[in-house]
Model the fold of this input.
Amino acid sequence: MKEFTLEELKKSNGKDGNPTLVVYKGRIIDVSASNLWKSGLHMNRHNAGNDLSSDILAAPHTPEVLDRYPQVGILKEEKGEERQIPAFLAQLLKQFPFLKRHPHPMTVHFPIVYTITVMLFNVLYLITGIRGFEITAVHCLGAGILFTPVAIATGYFTWWLNYYAKPLRPVRIKIPLAFTIWIISVILFIWRIAVPDILQTSGPPHMIYLLLVFSLIPIITVIGWFGATMTFPIEKE
Done:
């Protein structure tokens, strides 16, 4: 059967009259006849012309659904694309396939939520003067500090396993911002513990502390946005 490289496969994206081809475990499948692959995009998430071997494990259907469509070739193995996965990890992934896709999405929500609530509870404290809101913000800040490294670690794992650690633009943006948000959170936490009444005073330290708190929101928004574009690619007209 015809051999395709990944670069050649990208041209078969279902657009501009090109066929709609996808890869599953080295098999090139032509899904052009499927109404669910119109314009080369499936469920507003998966783009044709790509290897979906990992993605399909998280789908609500089994890989056998691809047997309805003809195989038109095989994927040519290219040097630089091969990885040696440790035996224990290969066995673990075989036994628990969800580990290929879900660890990062499962863990990343915690630091996102905790980071947002830090700002929310501090604002509530400034509006109401109720100290309990400010104390809750500190607890959320501490939880965010604990969960952020976990999200970073699972992010690196997913990047290596599913994206071959390629320097994708969303990843290049997310990595430094993730470390930035963790460093800011640590600074705020230590500062708040050292100066418990930082928000009850006025002056430059008070304003700088608040600016750092509010800076967490645009940073976490950018991280979340680019993370979402990797899972749910934006359809370009």
